[in-house]
């Protein structure tokens, strides 16, 4: 028993409480740090060996002060894993939804300048032209309306291509696949994986009581949660605290080493971006050549799904195909009417006779430029025949009887609008190519299907977001910093520190008394 | 039951609440500002599809309305022309009756003949009436003058014949067409001065002119035959008046049909527009009151949030 011993005990209290304040301070400092979990200072009594003989002749021991056992934090690995899985699912839904949202925006037929509006205008222009087929203003109006339809098709087609290229790139340009959203996600996944491997390495080398290892685990958890947004994975924690990760069933991180990584390459037209898993040492060692089938979550799955032609439901390709079919049907039908000739009657444009008077002449120029090399019409190549655009008199408004040479029996019948009537009839005609419905309802059902699918995914994503929110809320509520708690702790440590220093100064006074006794 | 709540989850909760209230507010704002509750297909796919159908229907009806207006214009032009023709034919009738009097002097016969010539010219002008740049009595030969009178008095028809596909039509409802024109030759006929053949009112007037010429001849036999021919022509004039009047009546009926179409299209348009409005337009009163209650909700969540975040913290007391 000695006064110095008491002083030592007081000092241990000063140290521990100072440390306690440090932990509080760190907690307060990180109260807004994403992924940060509150740390606790766990303290215990230090066993002492300061014997004192009692009146009964036995030795009595007092404690030796206070010490820190460890700095712990709230963790629930199971919950974290579950949260990450659910988050992967949410992010996949969100990415797919974003693709569908783009589709719905491109195909928003209620917006200004929509395709169906252009079609309605075209038929209105045809009706208007029946009022006076020799009026050049009405002819120009008609051909402009037709051009507007073609341009609308082009616009939709190029928007679809651009959006899809943004997601997975263009199969003909390998660089675009790397720069696509899928490429960027792949890069991010690899970067996160290598960071996790490094953290694994450091954590493994540290003692579990070290508070910095908590910080590293927090960091790693953040990375895991980030990774779960990008791609789904499964993880296990091994004995030395490292987390092993499998993506699509393939080991990518084992302890402190990253054994495999994602690699994006050019696939086929259906899936321009092909993501494979290759060995880190040698990228020619392919472990899985296409992981899209094995993924169940994460943005990567959502993006690949949204852009894939083979996915179920509405895809870019399906919309593109439908639009192409609409464009092809429209262009072919209008051209067939424009160039109609069955041997008895034929479509007639307006020409000039020798005296410069208007007469009917056989129609030879199509309204829509025939695609080169015998290709079919589609939404990207449909365009107005420049010859008709430059000379709207070439629009075949009349359909009259012809002689053996194909010339009109009555070349002066300019007021005949039978050919235009056929064009107008297209508006209500049911096309076999479109599944036995009108052009209008085919377009309408396409747009409705896109919107309904987006709606469905919106609902799924909303429900999933609720699930993720709930788990996250629970996890964060249990683990993150509560300011009031920290303030209470702060006062606690502050008071204890004050008390210990009082004890210290009392010991000091006693020591001085002792020293003066010896004088 | 959550027993421990971290500060950050309280803050996050507040942010989520505010965000969801704000997004509702934003939606209501757009509705109130555009006056539409369906602004895109994503808002409500089924209603949006319905709006699209109605839009197309409205577009069609508006086209039909323009066609009806064009038809009405052409009917009016035709009716005015034919009205003048009937008036002139009645004058021809008077003149024929007056010329049929065998005591007429040569001078007065000459005057009658001159007036007839001028009437004939007027009728030719009427027969060549143009509407919107089209010769309305030429059938489908809209760029060709309907009748050309040459110096010898021959009047030839330039339009498409009555037989065959001479009709010009405008669609005024799905599959329903209004015929715009009468074939000029069936209304006015024609006349060949070389062999004196022809038909219709042009032949009648030309014959009458010729008969008056004969009637004023000094040769008594010729003159007598001339007066007989004049008397005969009176019947023809009557027939011609009937023909023209019939045409007027016929197209008067069509004009009435156009008026009916005009009314029913207007009704149809109102119906389609109100259908569309029902699906698409927001009830403004409802939108405003929703907006205001949403505003209260937003304010309340802000106030509560500010209170929990700022005041109920130990920070304020130690």
Polypeptide structure, described:
With 519 residues, chain A is of the alpha+beta class. Helix content of chain A is 54%, strand content 15%. Chain A has helices at 3-29, 77-106, 115-131, 136-168, 174-179, 181-205, 211-230, 298-307, 316-338, 386-390, 418-425, 439-479, 483-517, and strands at residues 39-45, 50-53, 59-62, 66-73, 234-237, 243-247, 250-254, 257-258, 260-266, 273-279, 286-288, 345-352, 358-362, 398-401, 430-431, 437-438. In chain A, the strands form 6 sheets. Chain A has a 4-stranded antiparallel sheet with strand order 5-6-7-8, with helices on one face. In chain A, strands 9-10-11 form a 3-stranded antiparallel sheet. In chain A, strands 13-12-14 form a 3-stranded antiparallel sheet. In chain A, strand 6 (243-247) and strand 7 (250-254) form a beta hairpin. In chain A, helix 2 (77-106) runs parallel beside helix 7, helix 2 runs parallel beside helix 8 and helix 3 (115-131) packs antiparallel against helix 11 (418-425). The longest helix of chain A is centred in the last third of the chain and has 41 residues, at 439-479. The two termini of chain A are 23 Å apart. In chain B, a hairpin with a 2-residue loop joins strand 1 and strand 2. The mean pLDDT of chain B is 89. Chain B has a domain at 55-275: f41 fragment of flagellin, N-terminal domain. Chain B is 68% helix and 7% strand.
